[in-house]
Amino acid sequence: MELKGRTIGFAVTGSHCTYEEVFPEIKRLVDMGVNVVPIFSNTVLEVSTRFGEAGEWARKIEEVCGTRAITSIPEAEPLGPSKRLDCLVIAPCTGNTLSRLANAATDSAVLMAAKATMRNDRPVVIAISTNDGLGLNLFNIAKLINMKNIFFVPFGQDAPHVKMNSLVSLMSLIPATCEAALEKRQLQPLLIERWREARP
Fold first, then answer.
1. Domain range spanning residue 183?
2. Whole-model pTM over 0.90
């Protein structure tokens, strides 16, 4: 399904080490003619790390999208009744956000956007980046895989020899996963040898 002309919410959570991989995919969606609506968790806006100062990536994303981001629960709630989004992407999706979504918690702009999107029988695409994907969060991944209107960007172990529980999606597959999700299909294969992507 062609993405041009679609409105896609792009929700970013606090996996700071993954922003460099995610940002080009946001730009690619914009270049494809997608109306991208940025949505940020508080961590994106308020936490400085070695990967960037607080709010730095948020400003870059707003600039490339050409619109101000949704950053609060009250701002995200109208996405439900307005049916503004054709699809919501959560990328990167941390283990924290993953677990809250799996257990119906709605305590951030990102999670409210997800709730609003699912209310309208529209797809939520999750691109995980979590150090405990094969640990405590494995249960939540399994739970979400079996939920209606939840689709995953194909993922795998990113560094199995040093972080054996870590799972990360291949961010370059975000557009293709959105295309499939809009047709109510899970892009396959879902499980990939993600760590090989880092090899020269």
1. 147-154+175-194
2. yes
